[in-house]
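Lab notebook, bench 4. The sequencing result for the construct came back, and we need a structural model before the next group meeting so we can plan mutations. Quick request posted to the team channel:

Model the 3D structure of this chain.
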Amino acid sequence: MTSSIAVGTTTILASESGSADHKEKTETRGSATGTVYTGESVQGKKVVSRLNVTDLEPGTKHFLYFQGVQTPGGQPWYVSVAVARGIRPGKRFTLTSGVHGDEMSSIQTVQTVIDRLDPTQMSGTVMAVLDIARPAIESMQRRWPNSGRGTDLIDMNREWPGDENGASATNRHAGLLFNRLLRPNSDFAIDFHTGTTGLEVAAFIIGDRRLPDVKTMADLFPVGLMWDDPAYPGVLHNAFVDVGIPCFTPEVGAARVLDRDMIALFVEGTLNVLKHYGVLSGPIGRTAADANMLIGDAAFPIIATHGGLVEFHAKLDDDVKAGQTIAVQRNMFGEVVAEYTTEVSGRLAAHRTDASSDPGNVLAFILFSRPGTPVRSGAQQYSEKSYPE
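Done. Here's the predicted structure in token form:
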């Protein structure tokens, strides 16, 4: 005997004794806004398909799995969620990482913050969502593998806020997380990233300083650079902002590695934010003022015109002047085939770490400020494939 469950235009058939039937009964008992446990346990941690952090016991940490979209084999992708619920009411903060699968320092930044929290001394809630793009993380690559229309790789940070009935598993996964986990439990959010594989970034922040809480939070981080720009449509921090939840993106160095010195800066900044908004008590640590933060509103790209090996003549985080040589490129005979200069004065905020490059790749970008009206479309000035977020 089977039961039929209508979900949008899709009909799901499951035996009465199967897990899908158990899930239906469990979810029927839950409210539209309450926590829904699937009845499963993975490595001793309960699985939820919807979370309301106010349902969790105050004064303790909770470790759960969120049930995301299904894999091609039919099992769900599980996302790791850690919640520190304070003993007193207060603001709800969400810290996200792992939207790109090669961004290890962002994950450890969030892990470290959660580890430092004592819920018995806290007000409010801090929720950490640690490994959002699980398929990409499994292979430590930036994009989510997709087989829907032939072999493809999808950048999950162009899919938000997603659609639970969207055209790809990635888009559906984003919709499930945003509707059932992220949006309902957030008053403020911080979406942590790093540079992408092959492109390292200095410690910096991307966000829109026209938003008062974004400006306040960003200025509490002891890092030296901020790109004052809302960035691309479809990125997670904009999905939060679009529904009235202040959010921005810290960039924690290079992909595929753990940069412990840089992680420490972003942990300190995050703890400063939690103290400022009353979640934690204690003195504020170092801030952007101590780091003499440079705030730019545009990024000048340096694009490879040739193939060959790239030698940089300027270092990451160096101040550079218009007309300065940033790099040269040599062919396989060792002959210089290209010399790359910057047309603007600013800070070398990112550079290519792969020694060779095809024509058309971004080799570096210079963060700078334009005179007059601030430019707020810097993300459109260079190739999306090397955009650090």
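The chain is about 20% helix and 35% strand.
Will bring this to the meeting.
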